[in-house]
Amino acid sequence: MTKPTHQPICPKCGYDQSGEIATWEFQCAVQGTCPECGFGFEWVDLLTPGRVRLSWYVEHASSLWSSLLKWPGTLSYLLFPNRYWRRLTMVAPRSMARWLLSFTTLMLIFHLITSVTLALSLHGSVVQSNASMRAIIPALSPQQQAQAQQYIIPDSGFDYWFRVSGESLLAPVVNRSFYSSDFAELGGGVAVFCSGVSLMWIIMFGCFPTTRKRAKLRMIHVVRAAIVCSTIPFLAFEIGRVCDGLVYAGDYWSPLRNIEQYLSPLALSVVAIVIWVQWFWVSAVRIGWRVRANWAELALVCFASFFGIVFAGVGMLISQSISGMLDLFASQLGI
Question: Which domain does 189 fall in, by range?
Fold first, then answer.
């Protein structure tokens, strides 16, 4: 019988299955069970790891462009973690490098799009403000006209667009012109808090011997889950930037309509995202990794994970320091 060209290991705990293969005499078994962790699998999946390919999944794309096209499908599954983990079995091949590259590219594209939204909102408000000022100048006295001319902002030229573009790219870190409704800052805070919660899950899986012994799970799975779990919270930050731009533009173009009141219910999504993060981890444990844990134990772990607010606080301090340095650097560039 032909020997496998790679080391066959249990996809859950990493235990080498070569000893089991050595017991085969005439034919390959159809199904197997890891003697270390009890994980059940089909030998064809273990011996041919590239066989399981999901048409909707980012990590199974053949190129960067293809992975970007798969994000709508991936997010549609990711929004419902139990469905996501049920489809993404342990034997499915994974490429964390491909996920990180694709997600980073997606965030850059999304950030550029939201920056264009903010830049157009800022430019529109400047044009509207200048038009309003020019409309009232003829009714003023010559002395008042001279004073009013000082409030007309140049709305063209390289220097103007450099400042508008730079401020839009760096908002809300740099905010010299925008009226901020704090949606972006709220989204950023949620992302940092959820990262702290995920870090707490990693600690509970990796630092407690009892948990490690019961789970019999490779730590790479837990770290990878934490990275995937950050997807929705960090996208919320960019959505917050769009909301800030809409509120700012609405105050100038439709002052009688309070755009912010229509967007305020989105603030409730903060609670939904925190619930989603816990849902993601519980689904990973019970469905994705098949760890034997009752609901009382999972509820206790979920509660303990909220102590990740300590790590979130440290993260906020670090982000504020970085924001201060970026703001200083931007002011030196004339933004």
Answer: 96-333
316 and 189 in a single domain? The answer is: yes
Element (H, E) at 31: strand 31-33
**C-alpha atoms less than 13 angstroms from C-alpha of 304 in its C-beta half-sphere:** 14
Question: Are 128 and 249 a contacting pair, CB within 8 Å?
Answer: no
Q: Is residue 76, in this structure, part of any structural domain at all? A: no
For 206, what's the count of Cα atoms within 13 Å in the CB-facing half-sphere? 13
Do 166 and 25 have their domain in common? no
Out of 33, 51, 69, a domain closes at 51
pTM equals 0.84
Helix (H) or strand (E) holding 317: helix 309-333
pLDDT tens-digit map of 88-126:
888 888 888 899 999 999 999 989 988 888 888 888 878
- Per the CB < 8 A criterion, the answer to whether 284 and 85 are in contact is yes
Total domain count, the chain: 2
Q: Which two structure tokens, joined as six digits, stand for 264?
A: 């305020």
For 32, the enclosing helix (H) or strand (E) is: strand 31-33
The pLDDT tens digits of the residues spanning 259-296 come to 666 666 666 788 889 999 999 999 999 998 888 878 88
Q: How far is CA 145 from the centre of its chain?
A: 51
Whether 184 and 292 map to the same domain: the answer is yes
